[in-house]
Queue: 2 jobs
Job 1
Amino acid sequence: MGLGLHGGGLASTLFFVSRGAEVTVTDLRSREVLQPILDKLKKYPINYTLGRHRIEDFLKADLVIKNPAVPPDSPYLKAAKLVETDISVFLSLNKRPVIAVTGSKGKSTTVSAVYHVLKTRLPETKLGGNITVSPLTFVDDCTEESCTPVILELSSWQLADLKDKGILKPKTAAITNIMPDHQNRYTSMADYVADKKLIYRDIPAESCLICSYDDRFGREFAAETKSRVFYVSSHPLPENLEGVFLEDRAGFIRTDGKTVKVLPEKINLPGVHNRINLLYAAAILYREGMKAEDIAEGLSRFTGIPHRMEKVAEIHGAAWYNDSAATIPQATAAALKSFEGPVLLICGGTDKKLQFEDFDKAVSIPEKIYLLEGSATDRMLPFIKSAGTPFKGPFSSLKEAVDSACKDSKEGDSIILSPGATSFGMFLNEFDRGDQFRKMVKELEDNTTLQNKNSTVP
C-alpha cells in the first residue's frame, strides 16, 4: 500500500514477487507520476490499482505492506488481516546487530557519517531505512549471524509502525535531537515524542542509548532507558557522565575514566549543528570498537550527503548550497547560523503547522530572502517583515527564485536553498526539490563557463 517514489514500495514489491507471491500494488498517485518506478516492475506479473484504493484489495489480501506515510487510522488498513512494513519484515529476518538512529534533524548526516567510516573497516556494513534505501534490498545478506552491523535510519512514522512488535532490539540506539515536526500528522508534541521513544523500548540492558544532554528530552530518554547511556553535548560534560562533547571546536569522548579526541577542529561541513551530528557518529563508532584516532581521521574525510548543506557549485565567486532536506523552520535557522559571510536565502513552501521559534531570530541573518509560494511562506512573511530583511517573491516557481538570487549575488556570497517547509504541491518531495535546484544551479554554472570561454575567443 503506497508504492511511493523513494524506493521502499519498490523494494517490498520486488521482495515478495521474486518469492512467488501474488502482489497487488495500490497507490493514490496516478500512473503518470509513478511511471519511473513502474518501469522497473514491468517484467513482473503484478496487479495494479492506481489513482485510488479499493477496499476489496485489502479484504482479500493475506498481508498488507504499508508505506510509512500512510496514516495508521486508514480505513483500508483496518480492513486488512495483517499489516507490516519493509522495516518490520527486514527485522524479522535479520540476524546482524542493528545500529538504529532517529531524531527530528541530523539523523541522515549521522548515519551516513557512520557508514562512511565503518565501511573502511567492515566493508559488508549496510545502511538503510528512512535514508531512501529499503533494507529489503540487502536482506539476503543479513540472514546469517555476523558481527558486521546494519545501520537503520528510522523516522517517527517507521518507529510507530513497529510498536508492540518487539523486534527492534538495537545494539546501539541514538536520538539526535527533538524539534517540533510532522505536527500535521500528530495531535500533540507528546505523541510525536512517544513514537521517537520506541527506538529504545525493547533495547537490551547491555546495549547503549546515545542522546542529548543539552535538552530536556534527551535527559528524559536517559532516565527512562534500561540500557547504558552516552550523552552528547555542545559543551564539556560534567565529570561523572559518559559521552561526547565539543570543546574549542574539537570533539572528545569521555568513557571508562579517560577523555580522548574523536573529532578534529577542521571538518568539511559548516555549522555547529553538523559538528554535533558528527559527535553522534563518533560515539556510535567508538561503541563499534574503533580507535579514537581512526574515528577522527575518518570523520575528517566525510563530505556530507545530498540535500543537506550540500555544496552544489561556485559561480562568480558565490557558493550555492542545497539544503532542501530542511523541512522545518528550526533547520533553516541552524543552516543560516552556520555561515560566516553574506547569505542569500531561498525558502518557503507548504505549512506543517509548526512553530517558528529560532526562525524568527535567524531571519535577520540573510542579506536578502527569495520566497517560494505556499502556506508556510504566508506564516514566514510577518517575521521577515518584522526583521526588516529585504525579500523578493513569493515566486510561483523555483527557477524564478534561483534566477533572481543569481542576478543579485556577488563574490563571497553563499546562496542557500533551505526551505523550512515541506514541498507538497510544487514538487514531488524534498528530494525532487533538491534535485531540481541542483540541476538549475548546474545549468547556471555551465552557462557561465561557456560565456567565459566565448569571451576569451579572439
Job 2
Amino acid sequence: MGVSGSGKSTVGELLAEHIGADFIDGDALHPRANVEKMESGLPLNDGDREPWLEKIGETFAQAPGSLVIACSALKKSYRDLIRAADASVVFVHLQGSQELLEGRMTSRSGHFMPPSLLESQLETLESLDSAEAGVVLDVAASPAELAQSAKLWLEKTS
C-alpha cells in the first residue's frame, strides 16, 4: 500500500516472486470510470474507491493460494473494506518523502495517474495504526531490499 510513485507494483511483483505468490496490480481492478477520472486530473472520492476496494477484497478472498495485490489503500476505512472480505490480509506500507515520490512519478511514462494528484493522495493517507497487521518500509531503499524486508517481516509474523 502507499501513494502513487511509492513502488507498489515493482516491490509487489518482487515480493510475490520471493514468496511464490501470484501478483495483481490493483490498478487493473479499477472501473474504467475511475481511470478516466484520474487521467483527467481529478482525485477519486470515497464513493469512487468503494467498489474498487470491494473488488480487491473479493479477489483476495477468492484466491486459491498466496496473493500480493498492489493498491493504495490510503485510509484505514479502505483497508477495513478489504479486510472485511478476507481478514487474513496484511499490508506493506511503502512510504517516502514527497520529493522522492514526485521525482519517481515525473520520470515514469504511460501511467494514468498524473503527478499533480500526489498531494491529494498524501493528504488522504492514513498510516497503519498499531492494531493493523502490517509493516511500514521506507522507499529510499531499493525495490529488491524492500521486497526482501517485506518477505522477512511476513516470515516473522507467520
